[in-house]
Structure formats: structure tokens, C-alpha cells
Write a structure and sequence with these properties.
alpha+beta, Arc Repressor Mutant, subunit A, 4 strands, 10% strand, elongated
Length: 276
């Protein structure tokens, strides 16, 4: 198991940010606080603050060893890596360190053992660039990635402007077996059960809405082979104009899809054409 990285800074005053240092120096130079008081207030070592106030050390100087990479080059590397990640070509930490090693060899920058940066370079870069983080990327197929470009997306929305109505339909299943509510039981009890019926049947609901918030009456598909299978349901309390039908397994099939298109979609989509 790899060792956990522990910062080398020691004590409460070993780390400070530029903003606090700038405020502390400003207070001392204006005479509102002494060096000792400003160091205590902003959490900065007294000697460190005194060197900045006297001009012995530059205000932007950082504690510890200087970075091996020049700050301008390091910033350029970070910008390149983060920009590539936004485009779907991110690299791992190991790849980043390997490429920095190649860059140092080409530019003849010395400072790494065996000319290969260690993981400590990554932690140092993170401290200087807090916006960096390791993220788990989502999977994106090559076909989808190729279609996600400016030309294709622009053509899609241009074609979308010529369509009057865009409807989205989907089916969902609802089990008739009820879900037990929370009950009062003894604290620490390992098994708390709630009895339910043995009926595992379900009902399929076909719903259709559009982006304007308009919704069509639903179609409800129950399990059965004849119209008598509907007698066990309170169809009168269903939403207005609900279409009830049945199927052997309460599934949406080709016949019921055509029925839904004729009896629900065409009757409720409106007179304007085309629709999508």
C-alpha cells in the first residue's frame, strides 16, 4: 500500500496564502499593527512577515524549495492538461508526470532524480493550483463524441426550429403490491418485517408530454386476456380521457402501440403539423 503523502511544512505558521501576507504587510506599513501583532492575527511567522515588510524577501515569494519548473511553464502545462480534459482527452497523474519528465529532458531542466518526477511534484502542483483535482470521467462512446460537434449540433437546432411540436413518450411499470410504511420497533432490532400480499402483478402506464408542459391522457395496460380483466379496477377515478386496455403480461406490444397512437396521440396532439 503506498505511503500517505504528508506535507513537509511544520508548525501552524508554515503555510500561508498570498492574500493574508499582502494584508499583513499592508497593515504593518500603514502603522495600524506591529509586525508581531500582524503575524499573530494573520497566522504568519514573525520573521517571514518581517522579511517581506523590510523588502529583504519579495512579497510573492513562497516558503520551501523553489519549483523545478518555471512558474510560467507550469501554468502553461496546467492550462493544456485541463483544456484537454474538457474536450474528452484527459490524462492520468502518471501520464502527467511522465510528460513533464520528457519536457524537462527536452528543455534541459535539471532537478529530478533520474530525470523522472515523483508523485510529490503532483502534490506540490496541487498546492499551487488548488483548482486541480483527480476526477473519474464518465464513459462517452466514440460515435457520440463525433456527433457532438458544432456543425452537427447547429444543424440539429436549425432543423428543430421548423418543428411545431415535440412530444416525448415513455412507459413505466407500477407494481400493485403495496410498500409497507415505517413502523415503531425496538431500537437495535435486526429484522423488522411488514406483511404484503402475494400478488406480484403490475400495471403499465404510457405517458406523453411536451416541453411546453402539455400532457396527454395516459394509457393504462393491465394484465389479462379479455376485457373482463378491467372489472377489478376503479376506472372511473382515473384521469380524464384515460384509455384502458389489457395484455397477457401487461406489457406494451406492437398492437397496443398502434392503439395508443390512434386513440391517444392523434386525438390530442392538435391540428398543427408536423409533430415530432
Amino acid at each position: 500500500m503506498p505511503k500517505k503523502y504528508i506535507p513537509t511544512a511544520k508548525g501552524p505558521y508554515s503555510r500561508h496564502n498570498y492574500e493574508d501576507m499582502e494584508k499583513a504587510v499592508d497593515c504593518v506599513r500603514k502603522g495600524t499593527l506591529s509586525v508581531r501583532a500582524a503575524a499573530k492575527k494573520f497566522g504568519i511567522a514573525k520573521s517571514t512577515l518581517g522579511d517581506r515588510v523590510s523588502g529583504k524577501t519579495e512579497l510573492t515569494a513562497r516558503s520551501g524549495c523553489n519549483p523545478v519548473l518555471p512558474m510560467e511553464l507550469e501554468t502553461e502545462v496546467i492550462e493544456s492538461v485541463t483544456s484537454s480534459a474538457e474536450k474528452g482527452f484527459g490524462i492520468s497523474r502518471k501520464q502527467l508526470l511522465s510528460r513533464i519528465g520528457i519536457l524537462c529532458r527536452k528543455t534541459k531542466i535539471k532537478g529530478f532524480k533520474n530525470e523522472t518526477p515523483s508523485k510529490h511534484l503532483w502534490y506540490s502542483m496541487k498546492s499551487r493550483h488548488p483548482e486541480l483535482n483527480l476526477r473519474k470521467p464518465e464513459k462517452l462512446g466514440n460515435v457520440r463524441a463525433r456527433m457532438l460537434n458544432l456543425v452537427v449540433v447547429s444543424n440539429y437546432f436549425d432543423a428543430l426550429e421548423g418543428i411545431v411540436g415535440i412530444w416525448n413518450c415513455d412507459e413505466t411499470g407500477k407494481q400493485l403490491e403495496h410498500t409497507p410504511v415505517c413502523v415503531i420497533a425496538r431500537k437495535g432490532a435486526k429484522n423488522v418485517v411488514g406483511r404484503t400480499g402475494n400478488d406480484r402483478s403490475n400495471i403499465t402506464i404510457m405517458a406523453c408530454v411536451n416541453a411546453a408542459g402539455i400532457k396527454m391522457p395516459p394509457m393504462l395496460i393491465v394484465k389479462g386476456k379479455t376485457s373482463k380483466s378491467l372489472f377489478g379496477y376503479n376506472t372511473a377515478d382515473a384521469p380524464e380521457n384515460t384509455v384502458w386496455t389489457y395484455q397477457a403480461k401487461a406489457w406494451m406490444d406492437e398492437t397496443i402501440s398502434e392503439q395508443w397512437f390512434r386513440e391517444v396521440f392523434l386525438k390530442n396532439c392538435g391540428a398543427k403539423r408536423p409533430h415530432s
